[in-house]
């Protein structure tokens, strides 16, 4: 009697990739809990939690950083993300960069430039953070001075470079999505503290058992809705005509489509909107004597109506802006025209570009409103249930999107391995002067 197959379709190569990815993520999370030398972490955390800059530091920590704990990986993957966004936006605004993005050598050069820009951004951010901790937080630094600044800049910049390298290694040698997986596991790392906090809320009667059930039901509904919206797309039909290739070969016509996802911009509009809307509060913490900044800070109080309306408008605007950069409709129309393909009922060229623009405009609006709504859910939960939610809509969007992509990549790997196994086991006869067998 043969033993049951417990491999679950995981071959040796996939097992090695999963093991490497797991070890890399473990190293990252260990480093994210090692404090940088010379910093009083408790004094830093107390100051941030009671300051107007709490929103800024919370956003940074959500995206994989650890500034509130001043760890050696405090900058996380944010310097690399910032550099990547800069070059991605330049691709839509600078023709030379756009041309480089279309060929392999150009993309390699842009990747190298992104690494250099990451180092520069990390140096600037680490120096700014060290200066902030030394001068703005009483008792946070035991031995202030040039030695502390140099040490912090060296430690935080080295940590950011190592995190960038680690993400690239996961992409190349692991299961892919290296940078995104680092952010995702930074978010999931807060799951256990959030559960412990919820138990403490129940024990201290801050929230009732019914409130906990309602909270879990809301989270389940948000996750399910996020999965559905992430996978939802509008398919633009494409007709490829029949072609005569030469030597009597004929390529039959076929029907295909261009998928336009409702959440094409993903989490980027939320990040842009939050970055702008928390600027007054962050500046007010550095300039407490400015009456204008204090008024702006009170006007944009998180959870209040002006904050939510402004945030929604900014999210919609940035959604349209970002999609116009990453979804070049003119280039798509030109490529279809060169291939002889067309949208049924639409003329090739400019008419096709206008048609795709119209589809993007109709699809982007509900997606942008969903992004704004999902980001504002924690404020509504806080008002309705009486306690602060540990997970925000931005975190849910990131985790759901990355896990869906990772599952798809694993399934693609398994499908390719099944196909290779079939080709190796079967006998496929090729036509020609000499017969070959595989």
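Sequence proposed for the structure above (438 residues):
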């Amino acid at each position: 009697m043969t033993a049951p197959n417990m491999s679950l379709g995981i071959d040796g190569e996939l097992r090695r990739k999963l093991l490497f990815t797991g070890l890399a993520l473990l190293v990252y999370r260990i480093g994210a809990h090692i404090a940088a030398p010379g910093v009083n972490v408790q004094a830093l955390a107390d100051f941030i939690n009671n300051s107007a800059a709490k929103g800024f530091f919370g956003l940074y920590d959500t995206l994989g950083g650890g500034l509130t704990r001043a760890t050696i990986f405090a900058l996380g993957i944010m310097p690399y993300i910032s550099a990547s966004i800069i070059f991605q936006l330049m691709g839509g605004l600078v023709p030379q960069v756009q041309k480089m993005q279309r060929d392999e050598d150009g993309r390699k050069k842009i990747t190298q430039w992104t690494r250099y820009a990451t180092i520069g951004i990390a140096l600037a951010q680490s120096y700014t953070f060290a200066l902030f901790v030394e001068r703005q937080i009483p008792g946070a630094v035991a031995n202030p001075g040039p030695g502390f600044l140099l040490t912090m800049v060296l430690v935080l910049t080295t940590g950011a470079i190592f995190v960038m390298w680690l993400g690239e290694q996961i992409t190349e040698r692991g299961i892919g999505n290296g940078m995104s997986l680092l952010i995702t596991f930074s978010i999931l790392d807060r799951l256990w503290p959030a559960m412990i906090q919820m138990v403490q809320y129940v024990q201290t009667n801050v929230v009732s058992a019914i409130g906990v059930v309602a909270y879990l039901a809301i989270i389940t509904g948000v996750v399910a809705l996020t999965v559905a919206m992430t996978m939802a797309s509008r398919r633009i039909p494409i007709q490829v005509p029949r072609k005569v290739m030469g030597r009597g070969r004929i390529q039959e016509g076929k029907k295909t489509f261009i998928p336009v996802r409702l959440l094409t911009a993903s989490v980027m509009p939320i990040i842009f909107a939050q970055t702008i809307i928390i600027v007054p509060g962050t500046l007010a913490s550095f300039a407490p004597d400015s009456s204008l900044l204090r008024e702006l800070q009170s006007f944009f109080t998180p959870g209040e109506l002006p904050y939510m309306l402004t945030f929604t408008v900014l999210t919609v605007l940035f959604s349209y802006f970002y999609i116009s950069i990453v979804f070049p409709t003119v280039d798509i129309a030109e490529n279809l025209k060169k291939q002889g393909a067309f949208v049924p009922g639409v003329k090739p060229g400019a008419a096709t570009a206008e048609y795709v623009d119209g589809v993007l405009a109709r699809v982007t609006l509900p997606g942008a409103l969903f992004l704004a709504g999902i980001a504002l859910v924690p404020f509504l939960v806080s008002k309705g249930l009486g306690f602060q939610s540990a997970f925000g809509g931005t975190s849910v969007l990131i985790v759901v999107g990355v896990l869906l992509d990772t599952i798809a990549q694993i399934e693609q790997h398994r499908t390719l391995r099944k196909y290779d196994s079939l080709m190796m086991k079967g006998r496929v006869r090729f036509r020609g002067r000499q017969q070959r067998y595989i």
